[in-house]
Design brief:
single chain, 282 residues, alpha/beta, Purple Acid Phosphatase, chain A, domain 2, 6-stranded mixed sheet, 5-stranded mixed sheet, 6 helices, 23% strand, globular
Length: 282
């Protein structure tokens, strides 16, 4: 069995310190095989927020992979956003979009953020052809029979919809991942946990979302997913300080807007004015 802790949406700058301390204690006591962080380390990608996030991540002392979230791109500095969007990840660059390999199991990243898009709300996801090709190439290079988990920040579709409002290119990406028998896509962004199945033309694929460890809660308390991966499948336990049972922590559908409540005084997302770009995380 491989045991993974799946966390998301830490939002340093508006983090929940008690929840983070509790999670860190769980890691130190229980020693999972890895921690998977599916984006939004910070609130506004400020230097002090990244510094605090990196300090905390470096205490975990287990293998870690980090997805880039929409909140992790520079918000107030358009020059930095377009020219050096990932500069503040430098301290943990080795962990960003890092593939993890275990006996019979691989964790493969899928990038869903972009510096700009042809729509007003840049907080929503976008799987570009380049990003998808990179993920599919990594999957195709794995040995036959490998159990594959894909990590991304944004859920690829809202359950029961065509997914156009949430993540552009998500429907196609899910179909390609289902065709390769990916066991599950692990995401964050909505600040509530879920465990859903999506029917695609290539078959059914599982979508597992983690809640938040920040103060920006939506409908459930701060939590993380405790995943047990065996030959028989993936077990999911949603752990939280309030001891709410897993079924009560998991929402039955991904919200159409997929956005958590906006914090008081938090500015709205920027308005797109230039073509989309998909740079490497280097």
């Amino acid at each position: 069995m491989t045991r993974l802790f799946h966390i998301s949406d830490l939002h340093f700058g508006l983090e929940d310190r008690a929840a983070l301390a509790w999670f860190g204690d769980c890691v130190r006591r229980e020693r999972p095989d890895a921690v998977l962080i599916t984006g939004d380390l910070t609130m506004r990608a400020r230097r002090r927020e990244f510094a605090a996030a990196c300090d905390w991540i470096e205490t975990l002392d287990v293998p870690v992979t980090v997805a880039v979230g929409n909140h992790d791109l520079p918000y107030f500095n358009p020059f930095a956003r377009f020219l050096w969007p990932y500069r503040r990840f430098r301290r943990i660059q080795r962990l960003v979009e890092r593939e993890l390999d275990f006996p019979g199991l691989a964790i493969v990243p899928l990038k869903t953020t972009a510096r700009a898009q042809w729509r007003f709300d840049w907080s929503k996801g976008w799987v570009t052809p380049r990003a998808l090709d990179r993920t599919l190439a990594a999957i195709d290079a794995l040995p036959q029979g490998t159990t594959i988990l894909v990590t991304a920040h944004h859920p690829l579709v809202e359950a029961g919809t065509r997914g156009r409002a949430l993540t552009r290119g998500g429907e196609k990406a899910l179909c390609e991942l289902a065709a390769r028998r990916v066991a599950a896509v692990l995401t964050g962004h909505v600040h509530d946990a879920f465990d859903l199945e999506k029917q695609t033309p290539a078959g059914v694929i599982r979508m597992i979302g983690a809640g938040t460890l920040s103060q920006r809660i939506r409908s459930t308390p701060p939590s993380f997913n405790d995943l047990s991966v065996t030959d028989g499948g993936i077990g999911v336990r949603v752990r939280n300080l309030a001891d709410v049972p897993t079924p009560d922590m998991q929402i039955s559908d991904i919200p159409p807007d997929a956005l958590p409540p906006r914090a008081i005084g938090e500015p709205v997302a920027p308005v797109a004015a230039i073509p989309p770009v998909d740079p490497p995380v280097h």
